[in-house]
Amino acid sequence: MNDQNEEKENNKKTVNDNESSFDIDKESIVSTSDLVIDGTPHIEIKGLNLRYGSAQAIYDVSVPIEKNSVTAFIGPSGCGKSTLLRCLNRMNDLIPICNYDGQIIYDGEDINQSSTDLVRLRRKIGMVFQKPNPFPKSIFDNVAYGVKLHYNPSRRKMNEIVEKSLIKAALWEEVSDRLHELGTSLSGGQQQRLCIARTISVEPDIILMDEPCSALDPIATAKIENLILELKEHFTVVIVTHSMSQAQRVSDYTAFMFLGRLIEFGKTEKIFDRPEKELTERYITGRFG
């Protein structure tokens, strides 16, 4: 917790040590008129606050996530973007000192209600983590594991699901003749695509990606980015990234966060070409962060 507080203080100092200082509360979005999307929201964050014990990490954040789009969250380390991402399927519930208020509306209901079925929620809103984390099982069983847990289909149906999931994850052609081999024997990029196949095998609506390319080389990163663009035809994708160029390449909308606040949100092209907030412009041009 001291590290988190120190990181926030360092971020504050970085802003103040440049050409001018900012009133972060004034810079952050407070009007819903600033939160415009073209289509139907698939999930909506409304007035979310989150604390680790007494230390607040997210301040009154509201964001609409458009269905069948890619929304990227950007911002310096410690700004709260990964914490916010984990709120979308309540992964933060696993942290004892974490508490939050506000609404996250999905499928017409507030998922922050105590009555929410967390097993179903995490099936419908899946997560792909920063580092590939395949199970110590065969490639086939990695993809089949969640399907068995939730549906337990026939062997024939299972084979179809595994093949279809690996095809959607752009991995089938590379592993179709060695499905019995361990998933951990694959390269880093292949392992991450295997984890994506495992996620989509249980038919989620939304896929959360927390810096999915940070541990990958440029070639593997390009494959994941191409895959993300294909996935949005079937799923809604929310990605956290430190790469400005990656956000520009794969996302339809971008949300810039700083010190737990949402500073700016909009179409990715507009955020990077014509940002309204000076703080946004300074971050995306590398003048701090």
UniProtKB/TrEMBL annotation:
SMART domains: AAA. GO terms for cellular component: membrane. This is Phosphate ABC transporter ATPase subunit (PstB). It comes from uncultured Poseidoniia archaeon. Keywords: ATP-binding, Nucleotide-binding, Transport. NCBIfam families: 3a0107s01c2. Residues 43-284 form the ABC transporter domain. InterPro entries: AAA+_ATPase, ABC_transporter-like_ATP-bd, ABC_transporter-like_CS, P-loop_NTPase, PstB-like. One of its GO terms (molecular function) is ATP binding. One of its GO terms (biological process) is phosphate ion transmembrane transport. Pfam families: ABC_tran.
